[in-house]
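4.2 Preliminary Data

To establish feasibility before requesting continued support, the project team ran the inverse folding procedure on a target of 406 residues. The structure was first converted into the token representation described in Section 3, and no sequence information of any kind was made available to the design step. The complete token record follows.
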């Protein structure tokens, strides 16, 4: 049995920032019903055009996106035209047999569809509903469009990312993924609260504010000192050497972090340069900070003569934190991740066999697990509308003929 077995979620989300939230809860055992349509599919399905072309598929390619599959694992899929009155009513009936509803439309969209919390909480007393968007449901910015780079920029993350002598980079994916993870945690908290009190609640989640919460130390620093924090690249004021250093091979690097004096001594002996210990420029932490450019140069002279794996092994053997920088393919071959069974092979009816990430939690009594790939468009219409809502096959056929199921 999985932790959220018996919990059902009506999923109105799209894209990574929305869809990954109920996916995480689905990996914990919740039954997640993803509601979309071919008229307005989840945008991550749009990459199916590329994969469909590569694999010689037709425009059933809406079911061919690996990206969609990866962030919609363990979900059921139904197709409802939410602009059709019967589609709206069926959506409300799905919520009536659910515990949680999640959406990431702009504020006001769910209300126009007759699917806002005021309506749905009457349909399902005790409902937990989370609405996530860039700016939140209130305030002067609420109607502004936003996506990951905007979350990162307005939330202050972009200003802290990159190198001091370069413009801030465009930060993608991370803001979406962290927003989805925090939203899932908020829903878990609400479920615990409901278990204790019987009360449901509405959660107004802002991705911009979520990013601000992740850079709180910089906000406090500014409030205390008046200094506007900027990017530090790979530098760290409490560790030196601290950085990512070039190694043998094309675009191969090793990351090294030295915390204190004993670790610095271990580095000097491990790399065969005990004379660095006698160098007045590196005699203490502050001296190493003042002369870190020269120190980085010396460390990189050593790493350039070795592979990233060899440099990492030498330093780890001396008790120093060091690890190669991996690309995606190298991550899949990493022996530690393989031993931890970090990756899984799943079979998709259109894409075929491919690799996905396993759930990030190892739970001894109630293990999270992957039970199905991302759903095909409308794959579970008969189960959801028939078994859960009690419609006959004739009624379902009629809804399809009326373009309610599309």
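Position-by-position output of the design step:
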């Amino acid at each position: 049995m999985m932790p959220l077995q018996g919990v059902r979620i009506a999923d109105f989300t799209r894209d990574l920032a929305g869809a990954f939230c109920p996916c995480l809860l689905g990996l914990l055992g919740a039954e997640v019903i993803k509601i979309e349509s071919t008229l307005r599919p989840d945008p991550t399905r749009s990459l199916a055009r590329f994969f469909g072309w590569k694999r010689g598929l037709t425009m059933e390619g809406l079911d061919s996106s690996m990206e969609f599959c990866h962030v919609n694992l363990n979900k059921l899929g139904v197709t409802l035209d939410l602009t059709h009155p019967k589609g709206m009513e069926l959506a409300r009936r799905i919520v009536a047999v659910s515990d949680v509803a999640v959406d990431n439309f702009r504020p006001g969209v769910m209300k126009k569809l007759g699917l806002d919390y005021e309506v749905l909480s009457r349909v399902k007393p005790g409902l937990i509903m989370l609405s996530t968007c860039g700016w939140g449901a209130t305030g002067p910015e609420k109607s502004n469009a936003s996506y990951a780079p905007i979350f990162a920029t307005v939330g202050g993350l972009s200003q802290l990312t990159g190198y001091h002598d370069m413009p801030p980079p465009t930060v993608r994916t991370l803001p979406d993924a962290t927003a989805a993870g925090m939203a899932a945690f908020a829903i878990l908290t609400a479920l615990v609260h409901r278990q204790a009190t019987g009360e449901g609640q509405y959660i107004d989640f802002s991705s911009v504010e979520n990013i601000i919460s992740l850079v709180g130390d910089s906000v406090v620093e500014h409030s205390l000192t008046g200094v506007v924090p900027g990017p530090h690249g790979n530098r760290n004021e409490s560790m030196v050497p601290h950085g990512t250093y070039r190694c043998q091979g094309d675009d191969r690097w090793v990351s090294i972090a030295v915390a204190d004096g004993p670790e610095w001594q271990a580095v000097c002996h491990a790399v065969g340069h005990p004379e660095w210990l006698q160098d007045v420029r590196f005699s203490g932490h502050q001296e190493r900070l003042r002369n870190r450019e020269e120190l980085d140069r010396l460390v990189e002279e050593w790493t350039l003569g070795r592979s990233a794996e060899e440099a990492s092994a030498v330093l780890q053997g001396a008790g120093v934190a060091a690890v190669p920088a991996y690309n995606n393919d190298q991550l899949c071959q990493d022996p530690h991740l393989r031993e931890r069974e970090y990756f899984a092979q799943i079979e998709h009816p259109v894409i075929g066999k491919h690799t996905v990430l396993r759930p990030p939690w190892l739970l001894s009594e109630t293990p999270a697990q992957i039970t199905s790939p991302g759903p095909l468009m409308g794959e579970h219409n008969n189960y959801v509308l028939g078994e859960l809502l009690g419609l006959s096959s004739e009624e379902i056929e009629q809804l399809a003929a009326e373009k309610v199921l599309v």
